[in-house]
Task: structure prediction
Amino acid sequence: MLVRPRVDFCGTARRVLVAAAATVTLCVAATGARAATAQPAPAAAPSAAHLIETLGLHVAPQPVRERQGWHSPRIVLVNPELHELLPQLQQAAPHAKLIEMSAASARELAGADAALGVCSAEVLSKAKQLQWIQWLAAGVERCVQQPLVRERHMLLTNLQRTMGPSMAEHVLGMMLVLSRHLDYFLKQQQQAHWVKDDDAQAPQLADLEGRTVLVVGLGGIGTEVARRAHAFGMRVIATRASGRTGPDFVSYVGLPDELPKLAKDADFIVNCTPLTPQTTGVFNKEFFATLKPDAYFISVGRGRSTVTADLIAALASGGLAGAGLDVVDPEPLPPDSPLWHLPNVIITPHVSADTPFAEEQRNAVVVENLRRYAAGEPMLSVVDVERGY
Result:
């Protein structure tokens, strides 16, 4: 299994990324003449290269200063969720005025150049100078659906891959609970009941080793799921929209139209897809009908990729052995939903990425991207607005 030096890397990345005294730049992407036109900004820390390599982040091929209309930001709108990160953000862009949305005046909104975690229709209609949006999650469906993002050709970056390791551990945890029926034994524990070997009511335990897992959406999250599943001795297959290439630990990578064929032989199906028109409702009645009755469905992508009524019907009829759901549709799940009471179903309230490790990585990328934008350097994790991820 992949071993990450969590304490040393995260702590170092946070301290070094926010240090204004760093003198080594990560990318020299502009000529001296171009650099002279940009306002000075703190140099990228050497550990930023480690951050990029460790997470597998994509670096834009061209420096952002080459975008039409770019200039070092004067006003940056900040989501209140980033309040504690404000000192680091200010060091990353010392010449910019950082304003939390709750305190922004109409004049400040009108003059804002960039926004961190802000992408509502109301703000976009008022912030007519906005050039760049840093979204605070991997899924950007709420932002790319805003017409003004497309009309103004805004630069949109996200936090892809920063949450992959934590979410992948959540997936493996659900797979173990379901295959080992730990929920059943926890209930017996609460009743102080020792289940005997010959108890006919006791569920049959199963190993992950040798089982087949289908990762639907082999992106940042899906790749980390695949890595860990392979370490458990599982056979890993996957689908991805961008092509058939994948890491060595994935035995086969198919295109999205191969999903039904690959799903029929899988023991576990893991939804890691972004929400796009193509993935909305893809896990439906027809899909569940192709699965083996002893298969498990795990979902950490987006809730709307699954037709909830069809999932309930598959579980209730025995057409599916169980499900692990960190995302559902709608959210929050209503108290009267049958999903709450179906056996072999684990529901967590969209928390698979809520770990200190994931937060460290998210914050490091937000700070680094603001530094890069202020300096005019190549950006990290640029979203293809047309594709939606």
